[in-house]
Amino acid sequence: MAHTLSPSDLWADVQSVRSQHPLVHSITNLVVMNFNANVLLAMGAAPVMAHAHEEVADMAAIAQALVLNIGTLEPYWIESMRRALQVATKRGIKTVLDPVGAGATSYRNESIRVLLNEAMPSVIRGNASEIMSVAGVVSTAARRWPMPCKAPGN
After folding, report:
1. Residue range 20-141, CATH number
2. Domain boundaries, the chain
3. What is residue 144's predicted lDDT score, i.e. its pLDDT?
4. 59-76: pLDDT as tens digits
5. Of 114, 112, 139, which Cα lies nearest the Cα of 126?
6. Mean pLDDT for all residues in the chain
7. E-only strand ranges, 19-64
């Protein structure tokens, strides 16, 4: 059943965020880090950009949401994302994965596979080609997908 969001629905969501003032732990790419923080602030959330291994689990343990964005990849950040996702999943908080450039390189696909093998995020946010690529990764690697998933074209 499809549901169309009205402007009043969207405003109610904004009001909900503003009243709850959630701490949103973000491990996001360098290109959009400042933009993400400012959007979260404008919405009434409390952003924190934390990727240091020494604090990432502690931060995920107190946050109300987790946002992961693989736009500027490196092994250290992927491990930070994996650790944060592990804690967030155990706590049952909402998680968002933005698989920027999924399908472009084997390293990106392997990084996505590492994260999806840790846990399935609440939301995977991407463009059509990224989502199709992630669907292929999910169908071959992830064991916790809540429903059967096939690679594009299968």
Report:
1. 3.40.1190.20
2. 20-141
3. 45
4. 999 999 999 999 999 999
5. 112
6. 89
7. 23-27, 46-49
